[in-house]
Amino acid sequence: MATFSEHLRGRSDDELVRLLLRRPDLAHPSPATLASLAARATSRPSLERALAGVDAAVLQAVEAVVALLAGSTDPADGVRARDVVAAVGAGRSDAPGVRAALATATDLALVHPAGGRATDPLLRPAPGVAELLGPSTAGLAAPAPHDPDPAAVPGLLAVAPAAGRAVLDALTWGPPVGVRPASGPAAEAVTELVRAGLLVRADERHVVLPRTVALALRDGRTHRAPATPPAPEDLPRRDATLVEAEHAAAAERAVRLVAGLLRLWGQSPPPVLRAGGLGVRDLRRTAAALEITEPEAAFVVELAGVGALVRDDGEESPHHVPTTVADEWLALDLADRWARLASWWAATARWPALVGTRDERGSVRPALGPELGRPWAPRLRHAVLGQLADAGPGAAPDAAAVREGLAWRTPRSVPPLDAVAAVLREAGWLGVLGAGALPVAGRALLDSDVDPRPALAAGLGAALPPAVDDLLLQADLTGIVPGRPSQELEALLDRSARVESRGGAVTVRFTPESVRDALDAGSTADDLLADLAAHARGGVPQPLEYLVRDAARRHGRLRTGAASSYVRTEDPALLAGLAEDPRHADLGLVRLAPTVLAAQAPLHELLAALRAHGLAPVAETPDGQVLHAAPTVRRVAAARPRFAPDDAGRGAQPPAERAAALVGVLRRAEEARAAGGSSGGAGAVVRGAAAEVAGSAARGAAAADGSPTLRDRASGVAAATAAARADRTTGARGGPRPSAGTADPAEALGLLREAAAGHTEVWLDVVGSRGALERRRVLPVRVDGGRVRVVDTARDAEIVVAAHRVAAVTPVDAAGTEPADDDAAADPRRTDTA
Amino acid sequence: MTDGPLIVQSDKTLLLEVDHDQAEACRRAIAPFAELERAPEHVHTYRLTPLGLWNARAAGHDAEQVVDTLLEYSRYPVPHALLVDVAETMSRYGRLQLVAHPVHGLVLHALDAAVLAEVLRSKRTAGLVGERIDDTDVVVHASERGTLKQALLKLGWPAEDLAGYVDGEAHPIDLDTSGESNLGTDGAPRPWQLRPYQAEAADGFWHGGSGVVVLPCGAGKTLVGAAAMARSKTTTLILVTNTVSARQWRDELIRRTSLTPDEIGEYSGSRKEIRPVTIATYQVLTLKRKGIYPHLELLDARDWGLIVYDEVHLLPAPIFRMTADLQARRRLGLTATLVREDGREDEVFSLIGPKRYDAPWKDIEAQGYIAPADCVEVRLTLPERDRMLYATAEPEDKYRLAASAPGKTEVVKRLVAKHRGEPLLVIGQYIDQLEELAADIDAPVITGGTSVTERQRLFDAFRAGEISTLVVSKVANFSIDLPEASVAIQVSGSFGSRQEEAQRLGRLLRPKGDGRTAHFYAVVARDTVDQDFAAHRQRFLAEQGYAYRIVDAEDLEQATEEPA
Fold first, then answer.
1. In angstroms, what separates the C-alpha of B163 from chain A's closest C-alpha?
2. Starting at the edge strand that comes first in sequence, how are the strands of the sheet with A565-568 ordered?
3. Contact A476 B45 (CB under 8 A)
4. Residue B180: beta bridge partners?
5. Is B133 exposed, middle or buried (0-12, 13-18, 19+ CB in 10 A)?
6. Rg of the Cα trace of chain B?
7. Furthest-apart CA pair in chain A: how many Å?
């Protein structure tokens, strides 16, 4: 017989090294002794980590050991490997797998040999493992004193009614607890079974299948069948060329979408919501402009956000604007751009699938919002991609199959199906998958130790089809690039045509608007036609040439410009020489027509200058009325001040200063306390200041948050508690008797702990749910986890109080008199007026 | 990656490079399941639609064939999602079947009970079906056969109609091949027989049961109808757009089949004859008096074995509803352009039947069965005064103003002079413009107001070569047979109607005895809505491979000298 720590001590150095390598948390920080190593290895967090990392077979073996020994009280008891093999129902072929799983569990110190021969030891679970696995391990109820005798069970079962048999069958493989049917034949059968002792009534509504009965029904086994890994042969397979081609197409698309987003937002940046993030309507608009669905648009936006390609510009009314990083990214070639996107995606702890879902307060989580962080996201992506890689080349499992694989590999922490589906979906959008399978480039993301970007870029580079520089132009004003357009051709089509469809090829249509865009961008008709002709395999068809020429002919026939004022006259002679006169150079006069001059100078300067020149101009209104000019006197509308003066002062105070002020307050409070609490004046100051701080915190919280209700109430409580504490701290204002009580939270908890340990009573001031103070005389029982468990002696009731609601604690003196203090009952809401 | 002629796009369009060696083989392979969308000079665009895929299923092609074809000819790897989608879509066809049950009559039978449950839950099928026989069968009211099929199509579970057709009253009809052809590629007359594509079209229709045949104007759709009648050998109801067209059908049937004038009746506004073969106009059928259609009983007047819908793209809405009741009879739709400006192509497909035959115009032109055509858009720059008038006009008047710009008269005159002696049509929308033009070029004008006899007389004279120029309004859009018109000048049209443009070009495509090229001119006022509408009108033809040349009105003479 050996205890766990004895077993550890007895391990060879190699075995210990193996243990430390497989459970690295045991080595950090280094344990001082083997005893402390054993303590650490049996601690709940460490066991939790160890179990989280084992596959289903190992977990099953551990469960079997625990289940077989459940109920045994003799520390010398143990199970042998062959018992486990039999318990999981493994046949001859599965037995070696079960034994290997047991060996792994032993290596991990999840089970340990506790006696028997070295070659066939008696195994016991490590301390703590059974508790971790829970009360009904392997679906077996915990042993109970009234369980039927195992020897008698077969006899009982033989006489069990047929209807009851179905009930037993339903509970056999667990969970062992069933709901009692209210009526009907099943209810009778259950009653019958309970009477026979084959079921045990757990409470009014539930029945439990006793352990001994379940084991008899299971033929003594703990598991129905040995856990086996899912067979990768069943997965759909994709041809490697297809995978690479679809990966390349998706990657190109993802890069194009992000670039499109940057172009779109560069021109019209969407505003930042008050609480941060992108509004639903702006997301919809972006999705429409990029011609993708909203979830995909959210993904693209998030991707750009993760790479810091866009960010909040920090202006007074902030917008999401592309950053300088975006320019660097745009300057890279396609493969490098994609490599960055893919590496950002793999590493980010943001979870774009949350966009559009609602948080616990019912508000929609926006893209780029602050609530999308999920620390497990990179791990899950890595695990999912790892599954795909393990499934072999070309395997394209669906989310359920991936989850099944994960359930085998890490049965204790199986991700939800929709999370796995989200990873697969995003990977598909991004091109980390092609046709649902992992391409060469995608494998680069699996090795987390090196920068994946070179390998990503190289993988994509190899997968991209060669660029095509040919354009087929047709008389119906469409054009087709029969392949992936070269960068130059893509740019040409981008500015002069509208894309109609993409895929293996790109088809575009030339429209008067698209040609006008090209002209607006500075091309001339000749340039554009020459550029098109240079790429066009069969020449430029006549209708297209006409389209371009017609668009060019109309282009720029209207001219617009900006002027501040003008001069007009019926008599061209009056204007003669005016525009050319060097004395008027600073007026910026331009002759638009023989009788019209435009000026850059404002009207009053123009008038003054012309009058100085000896002319007699009058000003006119837009509808031609003469404006009788008293000398122009300028006025602007008065702007209302943004803040009331005192508000402005407070608004401007930075948080650091406020904190410093608070510290000052606290210091003074400390000094006042040291002075013995005799000075009522100091107390008043302190109380006022504390209430003010609490009140402004409440307002700050309410202002920062869109929905005031909950936070407001919480802050109200905080404010009330703080105010009440301030009262207490200073002692009884005007009261002659210095109090032995305290309102300092740490001290209050200390007092409570002491009282609990010493079984003494205290006066407890608690802020009730409505913010009013209540005082009770109580006996503290336990203080932990932010809660205080107390017995209200007057009412003989046990209550639990959240620690943050405790306003003050005062030990009950020998006389048991209440610390008379009318302030305590004062309405805390008055602090809101502070 | 093969070097195939086909590029499969992720939006389910297929691009076929026509200059590729395998292009022809590929075209034949994809034609059964893909709809030809555009056929310009270099790359033809086909589209995969659920309807097209289901039609392919109906014609006996399965998803595996479709997928194999795509993989075989595709230049780049075919998107996996698309293949999955094709297989999924095609598997939806035929899970429901309309069958004739010995006891219950017409029954909707499901191979998959869940599908039946799904469609029966839908509001669309409410009232169309009767009693549920068992999990997989439900009685269908015979009268709702068409409506139900339509509803199921909309629900995405198209039913395979296995209930068959009533035979109809037998009537002997044969093709009469004793006549001579009016065409010879060498110009000489030849013994008449069905052209290969006509026979193919008639076969395609017959094997499919019901459906639509799409052939260019002038390619002899009437004869496809005649061939179908000869296959059916039953009494036949032929629905046409107007009386003139009815008479042409009659003449053509007498000439090319064994039918005698006594066996063919005309049911129109003026005559109400019901004979073994009856030709009725849509107009008389859809005539409504006091809320009822008094001539509808025509549809039940005989046990018709075949119903032919001419110019099915013009089928008026009431006819759709009536057709829904005729699902037990074979239906043949004929058209040059299954483009409906009202977008109801789907209803044509579900009620008349899927497209059974389709050939790009240019292919038939290449075979010499329709005349090559030279399409020219003449752009007329409006004089200053007209432009000012146009710019200040109310929006609703703008098209009329631009379309009937006075400058067009001069252009028409010059074109008429240029083609003097050739049979020439001037086609327009606005009567006063046409009358003015007619006076200027001294030609008779035919409008809706012209009496049938007068119209007939003028057509006969035109056909005989007594008059070489006619000015016609939109009455000329449909089925007037002007065999030797070789030049058309369109001065204005019904806004942006694509099918009208195609029909008008169609007037010219009947092969010329001397193999001449036909000329189609559209005179358009530059920088006006006229030009925008023209661009839209031309789209169908441009997509059929007819490249419009654009010529400025000022250099008309030089430009039109160039070869097409």
1. 39
2. A565-568, A596-599, A590-593
3. no
4. B191
5. middle
6. 25
7. 129
Nearest CB to A475 within list B40, B45, B76: B40
Cβ atoms within 10 Å, residue A680: 14
Cα of A434 to nearest chain B Cα, Å: 9
Q: How buried is residue B495: exposed, middle or buried, by Cβ count under 10 Å (0-12/13-18/19+)? A: middle
pLDDT, tens digit, for every residue of A100-154? 999 899 888 898 888 777 788 888 888 778 878 877 788 888 777 777 777 778 8
A619 and B CB contact within 8 Å? no
Backbone angles phi, psi at A111, to 5 degrees: -125, 160
Torsion-angle region of A635 (φ positive above 0: left; ψ -120 to 50: alpha; else: beta): beta
- DSSP assigned state of A143: P
Answer for the pair A442, A248: CB distance below 8 angstroms, yes or no. no
* CB pair distance less than 8 Å for B8 and A246: no
Q: Are B518 and B486 spatial neighbours (Cβ–Cβ below 8 Å)?
A: yes
By C-alpha distance, the chain A residue nearest B81 is A435
> What is d(CA A618, CA A603) in angstroms, rounded to the nearest whole number?
10
The per-type count for chain B, helices as H runs and strands as E runs, is 22, 23
- Six-digit token string for B160: 């395979």
Contacts of A483 in chain B (CB under 8 A): 7, 75-76
Phi-psi group of B514: left, alpha or beta (phi > 0 → left; psi -120 to 50 → alpha; rest → beta): alpha
Residues 6+ apart with CB under 8 A from A798: A781, A789, A790, A791, A792
Q: For residue range B198-245, what is the model confidence (pLDDT) as tens digits?
A: 888 898 888 877 888 888 877 888 889 999 999 889 999 998 887 778
Instruction: Provide the 10 A C-beta neighbour count for residue A687.
Output: 24
Q: Which residues of B touch A246 (CB under 8 A)?
A: 77, 79-80
Most confident of A597-606, B34-43, B319-328: A597-606
Name chain A contacts of B11, Cβ cutoff 8 Å: 501-503
Chain A residues touching residue B539 (CB < 8 angstroms): 476
Tallying the residues shown for chain B, one arrives at: 564
Tell whether A238 is within 8 A of chain B (Cβ).
yes
B506, B444 contact by CB (below 8 A): no
Question: Is B103 within 8 Å of chain A by CB?
Answer: no
Q: Which residue of B has its CA nearest to A501?
A: B11
Structural tokens at position B560: 């039109």
B466 neighbors B423 (Cβ within 8 angstroms):
no
Of A249, A473, A543, the CB nearest to B550: A543
